[in-house]
Specification:
This protein is of the alpha+beta class. It is 45% helix and 18% strand. The protein folds into five domains: 90 residues, GIY-YIG endonuclease (3-Layer(aba) Sandwich); 100 residues, no CATH class; 107 residues, UvrC, RNAse H endonuclease domain (Nucleotidyltransferase, domain 5); 152 residues, UvrC, RNAse H endonuclease domain (Nucleotidyltransferase, domain 5); 50 residues, 5' to 3' exonuclease, C-terminal subdomain (DNA polymerase, domain 1, Orthogonal Bundle), CATH 1.10.150. Helix 1 runs antiparallel to helix 2, helix 1 packs across helix 3 and helix 5 runs antiparallel to helix 10.
Length: 601
């Protein structure tokens, strides 16, 4: 029996066993690998489709030949099936599923209305029912644009609570008319609350009267000879007018809509997403789904919608560039309306989104082609066995031996693979000023988890011959066949572009000054350096923060949060009296004594 015959026999057997309920199914190989995770309104009918071998795309034909068994999970409804499918895809990363390269969360604007002088700030993460959220925004640029508007038009504060509570005079933002300075009483609580209400109305799309209200105030201020106040109001009106003029008729009526457009070229695809809320464009972002070679457009869009809305809020309507087969399934699962358009304004918007997707894919293909050229040259110059598909770059960072960390970044023919980045807190090296010993520890720990999936073709070290010898010594008991270790060090004058490259048993050399390959290798090293320093700074900041509150007995995460929320900063907690400490709910007299004694030893 051939592999295909075996796979079809497994499918036929499971057709008899499969439930007719909505749910999720898994295709599994002989060695236990999850090949594919899918969802269906009726699992049995879906499995029948896979038995029609001649109608399957090549990708799924290869999958059928590997199938040895199947597993089913019955779901309560379509929405549950969608959630289960996404959870399993993220857990197993099946090689025959269409996958998104990244799983980004979207920024929001958050308003804490419980404060006397609330601040609207950027936010990512889990939502708290106590606060109000506006968004999502497709990217940081979009959310920064609206934050800028909050300052120009509504004069809302943007400072941290700890800064706000300790100001004694207005900051520069007040001087340039971008804050109302509630920190020093330049505006009353009632007037600031009115600014907040206007900002919320604007973010909610109910902003028709704001401009008229500002105009009336400007005229009244002029009549009362309050020319400075009138000037501030005029600038606020101009900023608001610029936004309203930029709001074209083509999307002014889009209250809660995502536009999703697909563009394909050869074996690659790009999906552009535009987010509209309350008649405002909240930005756009592009995705490059993997494993789309012979998938239909419908299959790609369905896979994208499944994964995308597992981490993004679902709007009331989703406009897509072309139809999908299982519209009713997704509408029920996501509780939304999915539409396509052949003509009119909305069709025009989708066409524009598709043009953006095309441009993004062309840029991606150009970048990939350049990387592939560099990798091909790298294989030739460094005498590698093959063109590298996975390069791991390592660097260390510490502050005179303190907060020492090692960092690994990964580069592939399509760019940096940020999901594969790793950090290593230095645990076993006693002298953390010894970079060689730290690098040895990092590489030893990394290679404890080596497998066929994550085996590198090249290891690139930030350092010279010393680092190279140290790493070879650390990995002397590891099978390094097919793995090339290269160290990159700065030249005598430490000028970028004049680096030396070192390999075991070969003479060191320089690349041509400012050559494409030299620039590419510098980019790899600099990314590892950036990642290592960023990780080190986070560790240092966390450690500094931890030494002040976390070491106090009886102060857990909740009490620490309550203390900081009440006082604003650790310095204010340190300066607080016993009586003030006890004003916080949950802080007893005994706990207050512990806190006070800790800071007043």
């Amino acid at each position: 029996m051939t592999d295909i015959e075996h796979g079809l026999a497994v499918l036929s057997k499971n057709v008899k066993l499969a439930p007719t309920n909505p749910g999720v199914y898994r295709m599994i190989s002989k060695n236990g690998e999850v090949l594919y995770v899918g969802k269906a309104k009726n699992i049995k009918k879906r499995i029948v489709w896979y038995t029609k071998f001649d109608q399957l795309p090549t990708r799924l034909k290869r999958m059928v030949a590997l199938v040895d068994k199947m597993e089913f999970i019955i779901a309560e409804n379509e929405a549950s099936a969608l959630l289960i499918e996404n959870e399993l895809i993220k857990r197993y990363h099946p090689r025959f599923n269409i996958l998104l390269k990244d799983d980004k969360s979207f920024p929001y604007l958050m308003l804490d209305e419980s404060q006397d002088f609330p601040v609207i700030k950027k936010y990512r993460g889990k939502k708290d029912k106590k606060n109000r959220y506006f968004g999502p925004f497709a990217n940081v640029i979009a959310v920064n644009h609206v934050m800028d508007l909050m300052q120009k038009v509504f004069l809302l504060r943007s400072c941290r609570d700890s800064v706000f509570k300790n100001r004694t005079r207005p900051c520069l933002l007040y001087q340039i008319k971008r804050c109302s300075a509630p920190c020093v009483g330049k505006i009353s609580k009632e007037d600031y609350r009115q600014l907040i209400e206007n900002a919320v109305a604007f973010l909610s799309g109910k902003n028709t009267s704001i401009k008229e209200e500002l105009s009336d105030k400007m005229i009244k201020a002029s009549e009362n000879l309050q020319f400075e106040e009138a000037l501030v109001l005029r600038e606020r009106i101009k900023a608001l007018s610029a936004v309203q003029e930029g709001k074209t008729l083509s999307y002014a009526d889009l209250k809660s809509v995502d536009l999703i457009a697909l563009y394909r070229e050869n074996s690659l695809a790009a999906i552009e997403v535009f987010i509209y809320r309350n008649g405002q464009n909240y930005g756009n972002t592009v995705y490059f789904p993997k494993q789309v070679e012979d998938a239909s457009n419908s299959e790609i869009l369905e896979a994208f919608i499944s994964e995308f809305y597992a981490s993004a809020n679902t709007p009331k309507e989703i406009y897509i560039s072309e139809t999908i087969e299982n519209v009713s399934f997704f509408e029920k699962a996501l509780q939304t309306k999915i539409c396509t358009f052949q003509k009119g304004t909305k069709a025009f918007l989708l066409e524009q989104a598709k043009k953006n997707a095309k441009a993004a894919l062309e840029r991606k293909m150009s970048e990939t082609a350049t990387i592939e050229e560099n990798l091909a040259e790298m294989a030739e110059v460094f005498e590698l066995d093959k063109i590298p598909e996975r390069i791991e770059i390592y660097d260390n960072s510490h502050n005179q031996g303190s907060y020492a960390v090692g960092a690994m970044v990964v580069a592939t023919p399509t760019g940096f693979d940020k999901k594969s980045y790793r950090t290593f807190n230095i645990k076993y090296t006693t002298n953390t000023n010894d970079d060689f010993a730290m690098m040895q520890e990092v590489l030893k720990r990394r290679f404890e988890h080596l497998n066929l999936e994550n085996k590198p073709d090249v290891i690139l070290l930030d350092g010279g011959l010393g680092q190279l010898h140290a790493v070879h010594e650390a990995l002397k008991d590891v099978d390094l066949s097919g793995i090339h270790i290269i160290a990159i060090s700065k030249g005598p004058e430490r000028n970028a572009g004049k680096e030396f490259y070192h390999q075991q048993g070969k003479p060191s050399f320089e690349l041509a000054y400012r050559s494409k390959l030299a620039f590419y290798l510098q980019t790899l090293r600099d990314e590892a350096h950036r990642f290592a320093i960023g990780t080190h700074r986070k560790k240092r900041a966390k450690s500094i923060y931890k030494t002040t509150l976390d070491e106090i007995e009886g102060i857990g995460a909740k009490r620490k949060k309550d203390l900081l929320r009440f006082f604003g900063s650790v310095e204010d907690i340190k300066a607080a009296s016993m009586e003030n400490l006890q004003k916080i709910e949950g802080i007893s007299k005994k706990t207050a004594e512990k806190i006070y004694k800790y800071f007043h030893k």
